[in-house]
Design brief:
This protein is mainly α. The protein has one domain. The chain contains four helices and no strands.
Length: about 100
């Protein structure tokens, strides 16, 4: 199958998943964005275009591959990691400033 035919097939599958989805579509969209951000945070998807990640996330949610609980846990872990990194960066900056002050004395 050529790439163009594969893309058309994927789009039809996504459209079918969307039209057949029984849950709240707005909530699924919000979850898809959260899941996409989680995926973008991971090393595997770091270089992927965001549009492709969003499509993948939407398919995973609508097909039931990923649950709301899994998404919320992943988002929470990501936030904890981001917070830890921010604290480490702030500590490093403070240590550099302190070292620079001592060197100037």
């Amino acid at each position: 199958m050529t790439k163009n035919k594969e893309e058309i097939k994927d789009n039809l599958n996504l459209e079918k998943l969307i039209s057949d989805y029984k849950g709240g579509k707005y909530k699924a969209t919000v979850l898809a964005m959260q899941w996409a951000n989680h995926l973008k945070f991971s090393e595997e998807f770091r270089t992927w275009p965001m549009a492709d990640i969003i499509e993948k996330a939407l398919k995973e949610i609508l097909s039931g591959e990923v649950t709301q609980e899994e998404i919320l846990k992943a988002v929470k872990r990501d936030e904890e990691i981001k917070t830890e990194r921010a604290v480490e960066k702030k500590t490093e900056k403070k240590e550099k400033k302190t070292k620079k002050s001592k060197d100037e004395e």
